[in-house]
# Entry
Amino acid sequence: MMSRLAGWWRHSLSRRPVITNTITYATFYTAAELSQQTFNKIYSPEKPPLDFSAAARIVTVGSCLYAPTLYFWYKFLDKKFVGTAVKMVATKVMTDQFVMTPVLLAAFYILMGIAERKEDIFEEIRVKYWKTFIANQAFWIPGQTINFFFVPSHLRVVYVASASFIWINVLCFIKRQKTEKTA
# Structure
């Protein structure tokens, strides 16, 4: 059964990479968000219930934003910076982290603000952006170095989705932190 599922998945990845990557990303986003909420429910003094509508928003924004964007971004990086030499990998990692990441993080917070129907959709980005960016760099610079050195290009989004299970827990934790209104 698992080999048939793996075969179907590989076939789907080669025939419909954007949709397959989006479904893969949504699966990892769902698992990470629900695991983060469960952790919060167990260890938080407030014991908040699972919030499936919040999970649906974060999964929708995350998977629809990241999977298609990263698919085309990695194709661009692999075409522009060919190979796995140290200089090429360093260039890909730095370009990824200092060109695409700032845009994706900003888009994430803004789209979440819209999905949550916040009055000020830029409030979280003002309060949480730099904390998120620094955490992102600490996690993804080593992660993307592995990605660009060892992962075949057609599996890059899948690798990132897998590693994202951990990162999404961090992102959801930061996202869930209360923002303090500034005067």
